[in-house]
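Discussion board: Methods & Data

I've been asked by a reviewer to show the raw model output for two of the constructs in my manuscript, not just the figures. I'm not sure how much to include, so I'm pasting the format here to get opinions. Each protein appears as its amino acid sequence followed by a line of discrete structure tokens. Is this the kind of thing reviewers expect to see in a supplement, or should I convert it first? Here is construct A:
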Amino acid sequence: MLAFILRRLGQSVLVMLVVALIAFIMFRYVGDPIASMVGQEASSADREALRQQLGLNDPFYEQFFRFITNALQGQFGISYRLQQPVTELILSRLPATIELAFTSALLALVFGVGFGVFAALRPKTISTAAIMTGSLIGVSLPTFLIGIALIYVFAVELQWLPSFGRGQTVQIGWWRTGLLTESGLRSLILPAITLSLFQMTLIMRLVRAEMLEVLRTDYIKFAKARGLSSRAINFGHALKNTLVPVITITGLQLGSVIAFAIITETVFQWPGVGSLFINSVAVVDVPVMAAYLMFIAFVFVVINLTVDILYYVVDPRLRVSGPARGH
């Protein structure tokens, strides 16, 4: 187990270094950040002085080494646009993104597994046909279109929910949350549903397909022959064995929710890290863009590592085959 974790950690470090190099190369030579920091009246000497102050004239390897050294200390420099530490900017918007992502992931997991199990146990009912038809819509429609449709129905026509913003928030230490206020919860509903719909339909279809496959296996037939109850067979045996691939997909989808919340945050004007990245791209704010990609890569690496460990714990075949191969 320890060797497995250490091997995965080594791979994770390598991935982070590669992502850091790609991000730095990509954004270092895209646009001119000086143009967005000074006005048109600035002279060439002023521009050159600012470029020298920011270290943009240093050799590439010196800039990259400085970037890696600062990143290990949690420092990503100063935002060219806002003239504030990038770490503080990300931390100030991180609670909004995390609350939106985890709420969406929870909705997707609960309803995806629930609907998937229902569709597998009752495959020929009208309810299952309706669920599968709805899943096709959820998979096919783009996220921004779903968000606009929900805004039109629930915010414009029915006027039940707000169409933008995060609502009222409260400060708990460094964490600013909207989960403890009524307006914050109401503001979270539409973006959370929008972000979770694609993930929910994907999990639902996966659970249904895997559970139908498991229900056809010999040991399920043997369990029925022994006289076990339907509840014990469906949830104690079939669902348990279905969860192995579901854990992998769910973990990866959680990373995707955090990474691709940009569209949802833009549609609903949600003040998260994704909207900060979009605004930074418009003005070539290299420190913020590089820090965002490093953050997303770190999220994926941590989630993948956690999923691998859970996979190792849930599937006993990995624990058995590992020592056998080594021996």
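Construct B, same format:
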Amino acid sequence: MDTLLRDGVTLRVTDTSEGQAVVFQHGLGGGEAQVAQTFPAGFRRITLECRGHGGSGFGERRPFSFEMFADDVLAAADQAGLDRFVAGGVSMGAAIALHLSCRHPRRVAGLIL
């Protein structure tokens, strides 16, 4: 597990394996364990535990929003050295992926919803 510091909060990031990079997010109340159960092997998976989820802190910034979560996820993709990636997720994570693809269409090569 890696960490990412944004706006004074420490966020947990998982970066597994090698291969096609997929940024894949958990659902509301979930975390790394939820994603690990649903995501197939054989791909490089980057998962950020969103603020207030899993091992990530809450921070002071409010209100939480899809825009905030998407910005955090994009920062994790930047930290992982990804210029272009497939985005996806479970439930809330799918909404974050969709938000990313609408705001950053040149970065998102595809969606898994």
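Answer (T.O., handling editor elsewhere):
This is acceptable in a supplement if you add a one-line summary per construct. For B, something like: The first strand starts at residue 2 and ends at 6.
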